[in-house]
Design brief:
The chain is an alpha/beta fold. It has helices at residues 40-48, 55-72, 76-87, 95-108, 112-146, 149-153, 178-185, 202-214, 226-231, 257-266, 287-290, 299-302, 352-362, and strands at 2-3, 6-7, 11-13, 20-23, 34-37, 156-161, 189-195, 218-221, 237-240, 244-246, 251-254, 271-274, 280-281, 303-307, 313-317, 330-333, 340-343, 346-348. The strands form five sheets. The chain has a seven-stranded mixed beta sheet with strand order 8-7-6-9-12-17-18. A four-stranded mixed beta sheet has the order 13-10-11-16, covered by helices on one side. Strands 3-4-5 form a three-stranded antiparallel beta sheet, covered by helices on one side.
């Protein structure tokens, strides 16, 4: 994508291939800090502290973490330790373990003496693959959006999204926002309702920023406004991303997604999930019981960061002293509430047989 006219990705290698650069997304939209990750410890910190976030980007970043490990020690034992440690940084998004597993399998299949030279190429190939996957999701999603009744009746589509599943959550294009970017590129009239997405406000700080840079009309709304908008016919479809999808089509995504799906079902609004095949986890049968839900710091709820009157980033406390807070970061939306899954190979129903067939075809 482009930022102020400059083609930009979320992660890119240094010229000497001894490090990678990422954007510290915690400071967006107020600042644009570029951070250098030179070793696996840097990568672990960037993932755990959410300098980088979004399932696809987490996976690619971890792949580069394994590549950087090869510069220090490319033995099998060291690589396996590194992968396990990186996997511990964020437990819910399946792309993390998927990416490190791919890297490890390919590296261990070659002589140790070759691993350092080949590892960066492998990680970069995964980054390029992610770009192609998200572009394909955009094309398939665009075809789906063109079929919405509002497109033929009024010509303008009003879409609602939750959290950030744009290019900032991937290497480029994004998942849920990719069809919107494709729509913009073909001249379609699209307006996006942007959930603020408490507690980290990734809709307000990231999605709104992305859409603004792309020149796409959008309106920020409180998380609890989505149902109201749907009741009044102001939402033609909901489109979200995902961090993990179980074998039966249940979708794990940012906390609050389930409530949007319930409101969409009650109001007859299509609820679409953009799902790279890398997020499909067929080892999960009962998503509600089996997917580990990350519980993040209560401080994300009790405090908020923003620009103060002096134009500096400041943190303020929202609650009374000693207020208890619980902060689950994700929830699970049952497959029955999902209208369709948008993948890089096409649109499929959120059904077990369709997903297993998809996995067999991709194998």
């Amino acid at each position: 994508m482009h930022v102020d006219g400059v083609a930009t990705r979320t992660i890119w290698p240094s010229d000497d291939r001894q490090a990678v650069f990422v954007i510290d997304q915690r400071q967006l939209p107020h600042a644009w800090p570029v951070m250098r990750l030179a070793n696996p410890a840097d990568v672990h910190r960037a993932i755990a502290e959410m300098w980088v976030r979004g399932a696809p980007l987490i996976g690619v970043t971890a792949a580069f973490g394994v590549a950087l490990q090869c510069a220090e020690d490319a033995s099998e034992a060291a690589l396996l330790r590194c992968a396990a440690w990186l996997n511990s940084a964020r437990p819910t998004a399946v792309n993390l373990a998927w990416a490190t597993r791919r890297m490890i399998n390919k590296l261990l299949a070659m002589p140790q003496a070759l691993r350092h030279a080949k590892a960066f190429d492998l990680a970069q190939a995964m980054a390029e693959e992610d770009v192609a996957i998200n572009s394909a999701i955009g094309e398939h999603g665009l075809a789906l959006l063109r079929k919405l009744p509002a497109f033929s009746s009024s010509g303008r589509l009003n879409l609602l999204t939750h959290c950030n599943a744009g290019w900032l959550a991937t290497v480029d294009w994004g998942t849920a926002l990719a069809p919107i970017y494709k729509a913009k590129a073909t001249g379609l009239d699209v307006h996006v309702w942007v959930d603020e997405t408490r507690p980290r406000n990734q809709g307000a700080s990231l999605t709104a920023w992305e859409l603004g840079k792309a020149g796409i009309p959008h309106t920020l709304v409180a998380d609890n406004a989505g149902g109201h908008l749907m009741q009044h016919g102001q939402v033609d479809a909901v489109i979200v991303g995902c961090d993990r999808v179980g074998a039966g089509g249940d979708v794990c995504n940012k906390i609050g997604t389930y409530l949007k799906a319930l409101a969409a079902r009650d109001n007859g609004v299509p609820f679409y999930v953009a799902m790279p095949l890398s997020t499909l986890d067929t080892s999960i049968d009962d998503a509600l019981a089996e997917i580990p839900i990350e519980r993040r710091s209560a401080r994300e709820l009790t405090h908020m960061v923003g620009l103060d009157a002096a134009g500096k980033l400041s943190e303020v406390k929202l609650v009374a002293p000693d207020t208890a807070a619980d902060n689950p970061a994700f929830d699970v939306t049952p497959a029955r509430l999902v209208s369709a899954l948008i993948t890089e190979v096409g649109v499929v129903p959120a059904e077990r047989e369709a997903l297993l067939a998809l996995q067999r075809a991709a194998a």
